[in-house]
Design a protein that fits this description.
single chain, alpha/beta, TIM Barrel, eight-stranded parallel barrel, two-stranded antiparallel sheet, 10 strands, binds 1,3-dihydroxyacetonephosphate
């Protein structure tokens, strides 16, 4: 299991001028789809689960432990370099539970929190995580969401000086920024403020992350990577592809199949296998665009565990 520290992976990406994709899973099929894509593309990848879309009580009632154990088990024979991220937890406690559950990187969703609370909680998380070899990502600024065909809320764009002070005060390993990117955007592409991104990249000593990967304009990626972006988060596009494949597979049933073949069998007739395959195809294409495809061997040689 080449589970490598996220800071080493991000540093490799910065050195070689590409970005790592974080492709957010929600179950074992989607997770396997991401891993299969990384194997096919011989690419390093960040795998993991996002807490923000999940019920808080479920997460607190053993959900985080289940997700961590699922991820660790599925990574057992993984030949490509990976990091395992628990993304956007609701609380500091959940992020710490994620560390106990075997995640190698954690991030809290702090975008509704007062700035002072965020700094204190992120600094505390760093103190707990880093001595255990777990990386911490945090965000400065916040993204608007795309909901019901329109952008809901306004972006809090990241201020380069605030970002610099935040990183100095907390010691985070990676910083997510708001530069025009939009969460959950399914229609068209967001407009990135590349000048702002470059200013943040110059002010901040750690690699940058762009969330809202579904709506990122692919033609802006080379400039974004040159400005300091080493991680791109993708979620919505994977679920959309999975659901479309699932719908097609369900629509093509004859009605004579066994329900046991159709659901959870992991055989060809399993409708979730169709979803897994669709996720995989989307991820392979994005790994190519991010420039990480084909770099697995180089990462394994250059990044120490
Ligand atoms: P999208 O769902 O917009 O791709 O964003 C995913 C994300 O940023 C998860 O943190």
């Amino acid at each position: 299991m080449p589970l490598l520290p996220l800071p080493g992976l991000l540093a490799h990406a910065r050195r070689h001028g590409y970005a790592l994709g974080y492709f957010e899973s929600w179950d074992s099929y989607s997770f396997e789809g991401v891993l299969a894509a990384a194997r096919t593309a011989e690419s390093p990848v960040i795998v993991g689960f996002g807490a923000t879309m999940l019920d808080g009580e479920w997460l607190d009632g053993g959900g985080i432990a289940l997700l961590g154990a699922t991820g660790r088990a599925l990574l057992a024979d993984c030949p490509v370099p990976v990091a395992l991220l628990l993304n956007e937890t609701h609380s500091l406690g959940q992020a710490v539970t994620g560390i106990d559950a075997g995640f190698t990187a954690v991030m809290m969703d702090t975008h509704h929190w007062p700035a002072a609370d965020t700094v204190a909680a992120v600094a505390e998380l760093v103190k707990v995580a880093q001595p255990r070899g777990v990386a911490v990502e945090a965000e400065v600024g916040s993204l608007p969401d795309f909901v019901d065909g329109q952008i809901a809320g306004t972006a809090q764009l990241t201020d380069p000086a605030v970002a610099r002070d935040f990183v100095a005060a907390t010691g985070v390993d990676c910083l997510a920024v708001s530069v025009g990117n939009v969460h959950l955007l399914t229609d068209g592409a967001a407009e990135l403020d590349l000048d702002r991104l470059r200013a943040i990249g110059e002010a901040v000593p750690v690699p940058l992350a762009l969330h809202g990967g579904t709506g990122l304009p692919l033609d802006a990626l080379p400039a974004a990577i040159a400005a300091g972006v080493a991680k791109i988060n993708v979620g919505t596009r994977l679920k959309a592809a999975y659901l479309e494949a699932l719908s097609k597979a369900l629509a093509s049933r004859t009605g004579r199949e066994s329900v046991h073949d159709l659901l959870g069998s992991h055989r060809a007739l399993d409708v979730q296998v169709a979803g897994r395959q669709a996720v995989s195809e989307v991820v392979v294409a994005l790994l190519e665009r991010y420039g990480s495809a084909g770099r697995s061997g180089c990462v394994l040689r250059e990044v120490s565990p």
